[in-house]
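To the structural biology subgroup,

Please find below the input and predicted structure for Cardiolipin synthase N-terminal domain-containing protein, which we are adding to the shared reference set this quarter. The sequence is reproduced verbatim from the submission form. If anyone notices a discrepancy with their own records, reply to this email rather than editing the shared folder directly, so we keep one authoritative version.
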Amino acid sequence: MRWDIFGGVFEYLFLLVVFGAYLFMFIWIVYDLFRDRTLGGWAKAVWLVFLVFVPFLTALVYLIARGAGMADRARARPEQAPEYSDEYVRSVSFANPAAEIAKAKTLLDQGILSAGEFDALKAKALGKKF
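Predicted structure (tokenized):
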């Protein structure tokens, strides 16, 4: 009777691991489907329908048919990340140091900034340490 309890626990843990692996596979395939720009919307929809209703067979067919492309897309993603982040940083950063210095000079001429504050803003716009 004691071994029967342990058998149930091991069976439960095995099913939990299998379900976790299936869930990971399902999420990874859906992520790959939507990352792929070569597939049209209808093709993606068909893959998703089959993945929901015939999950294990569809996942196996997907890995066989599109596994190489999956690996290529996964490898290309980190290579593209610096381009996107650098472009984003450029788009949200200050227009240019000259424009920032001109604004600060206008504020200095109006008496809003002191000479020390102007120098600090100028150094900041030029990227210099104080």
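Summary notes: The chain has two domains: 2-93, 95-130. The radius of gyration is 29 Å.

Regards,
Lab coordination
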